[in-house]
Amino acid sequence: MRIRRDISSIPSRSAKQTWAAIVDLVTARDSVDAHQLEAAASVMESLIADEHPATVPIVFRGSGPRLLIYCLYDEQAMEAGLAVDRLNFNPTAGAWRVTAPCEAEDVDWMNKMLKERAPRILVHPVDEPPKDAEEPTQDAKGFDIDWGVFNRP
Predict the structure, then answer these.
(1) Which of 49, 73, 83, 97 has the lowest tally of Cβ within 10 angstroms?
(2) Amino acid 147: pLDDT
(3) pLDDT of residue 136 exceeding 50
(4) Domain span at 69
(5) Residue 74 region, left (φ>0) first, then alpha (ψ -120 to 50), else beta?
(6) Is 101 a domain residue?
């Protein structure tokens, strides 16, 4: 299951304030390694300022539903306001990780910095899916639903 949150960013919030709003959203008393979110602030603020989360989400994966965070910019951000719908689960409890989009030329240095400061967070090129994205296996079997059966007498 996936849960989506849209968070107003520039000009309603600075990149720093946007990241702080995201951290506030995803942390609670039972968060594990929450300090890594603060340690990753400079990297995350940079990619937020580059406006990549407008089209490719920052994704939190853990024991609960997958959380997709998109940022709103410009008029969309101003129209949406600063309110953020709270979550009914803690995406940073237990074994969690984050992937976020960035410019292809920034991936290496950002991941190197994150590996030292916040190893639960990984960036990927904005035009490529993250390397740890779950892809269906070849063993997965699909099925067809005959919706017409519901209209039969």
Answers:
(1) 83
(2) 56
(3) no
(4) 2-128
(5) left
(6) yes
Return the structure tokens found at 95. Answer: 């074994």
Instruction: State how many domains the chain has.
Output: 1
Q: pLDDT by residue (tens digit) across 6-56? A: 999 999 999 999 999 999 999 999 999 999 999 999 999 999 999 999 999
- Does residue 135 fall inside a structural domain? no
Q: What is each CA distance from 38 to 19, 55, 69, 94, 151, in whole angstroms?
A: 9, 24, 17, 18, 55
Element (H, E) at 35: helix 35-39
d(CA 71, CA 48): 8
Report helix angle 15-26 to 41-49, nearest 10: 120
Q: What is the pLDDT of residues 72-82, one digit of tens each?
A: 999 999 999 99
- Determine phi and psi for 6, rounding to 5 degrees: -105, 125
Domain presence at residue 46: yes
On whether residue 28 sits in a domain, the answer given is yes
Angle at 110 between CA 16 and CA 59, to 5 degrees: 65
**Measured between alpha carbons, how far is 57 from 6 in angstroms, rounded to an integer?**
9
Chain centre distance of CA 42: 16
Which backbone phi and psi does 40 adopt, to 5 degrees? -90, 5
Give the integer Cα–Cα distance in Å for 92 and 33: 8
